[in-house]
Design a protein that fits this description.
This is Heptosyltransferase-2. GO terms for molecular function: ADP-heptose-lipopolysaccharide heptosyltransferase activity. Keywords: Glycosyltransferase, Transferase. The chain is an alpha/beta fold. The chain folds into two domains: 2-124, no CATH class; 151-309, Glycogen Phosphorylase B (Rossmann fold, 3-Layer(aba) Sandwich). 33% of the residues lie in helices and 17% in strands. It contains twelve helices and eleven strands. The strands form three sheets. The chain has a six-stranded parallel sheet, with helices on both faces. The chain has a three-stranded mixed sheet with strand order 3-4-5. A two-stranded parallel ribbon has the order 1-2.
Length: 310
């Protein structure tokens, strides 16, 4: 979902570059696509059949996944940008995509790279990035009530595909206890995968609030009501950037330079380890510690929240 959000600036560039463009977007998350897109298709057999029978001028294939690259190969288009599948491997359609492709397989280049991801996908698409903003779905009227105090959102989870990014429940508990002493209003955030931990935390700390799993547009309204958002690298991070919210980001396995925050005030906390930016989805016996996210202490996060609030 975060990948969808941080590809939305390209819509603005397409609209500026081409006269009257008709834009089609294929995605697993149609609810995230802005109204500026003419046709939003979920990837299934029916829509695949439709796409196979349309002649496009340009295809932008930006996701280095076999299924996405296979679809790009199948679609009829005069020009193709980004990534394709070739002999069972991910490859590039042209030179514009080569840097991002090489960055994905060369650890040394990735770790020293200082370019942000949006700039890289613009280059892959044949554009120059000029600070085009995230485009978010329209917000819904809020069905939740908040107090007048400073509001701190805690996004307690991340995709279980990447368990290396998850901050333990014990750490969230300690952070909540520190923040409650400052009389902040604490709101728990997350999707279906975070429901269990958020309900457990709400049961333990009656002062905090959790509004359950929300529709995307209502969730965006909730985030927009907050003063500071504490999050691991996940969907909420990208929404917070799009909403220009103050962010405390807990990062370990990714290169922090790939995130572009525009003018959003933020603090990035990372473990002090030489092996960070490993891009591992699971910890293994080559890791220097059993869980490097534990090296980011609740006290550090608390101090960062205090700094952004004050």
């Amino acid at each position: 979902m975060g990948e969808v959000i941080r590809c939305t600036p390209i819509i603005t560039k397409i609209k500026e570059t081409f006269e009257n463009p008709e834009i089609w977007w294929v995605t697993d998350y149609p609810e995230l696509i802005p109204d500026m897109v003419d046709h939003v298709l979920k990837f299934d057999l029916e829509n695949y059949t439709i796409l196979k029978n349309i002649d496009f001028d340009i295809v932008y294939s930006l996701d280095k996944e076999l299924i996405c690259c296979s679809l790009a190969n199948e679609i009829n288009a005069e020009t193709k940008k980004g990534f394709k599948i070739e002999s069972g491997k991910i490859s590039t359609y042209d030179k514009d995509a080569e840097y991002l492709w090489i960055r994905g397989i060369d650890d040394k280049l990735m770790k020293k790279d200082t370019r942000n991801y949006i700039d890289l996908i613009f280059e892959t698409s044949g554009f120059n990035f000029n600070d085009e903003k995230y485009l978010l779905p329209n917000k819904l009227e809020k069905s939740f009530e908040l107090d007048g105090k400073k509001k701190i959102g805690l996004n307690t989870g991340t995709s279980k595909t990447w368990i290396t990014r998850i901050w333990k429940k014990e750490n969230w508990e300690k952070l909540i206890e520190l923040l409650l002493k400052e009389n902040y209003e604490i709101i728990l955030l997350g999707g279906p995968e975070e429901k269990e931990i958020n309900e457990e935390l709400t049961k333990k700390y009656s002062e905090i609030k959790y509004f359950g799993v929300m529709p995307i547009c209502e969730y965006i309204s909730l985030l927009d009501s907050l003063d500071v958002i504490v999050t691991q690298v996940t969907f909420a991070q990208h929404l917070a950037i799009g909403l220009n919210k103050k962010i405390v980001l807990l990062n370990n396995i990714f290169n922090k330079n790939e995130y572009y925050f525009y003018n959003t005030e933020h603090i990035i906390l990372e473990p002090d380890l030489s092996c960070k930016m490993c891009y591992k989805s699971k910890f293994d016996n080559k890791c220097l510690v059993s869980n490097c996210m534990d090296l980011i202490k609740p006290e550090q996060v608390y101090n960062s929240v205090q700094k952004l609030v004050k």
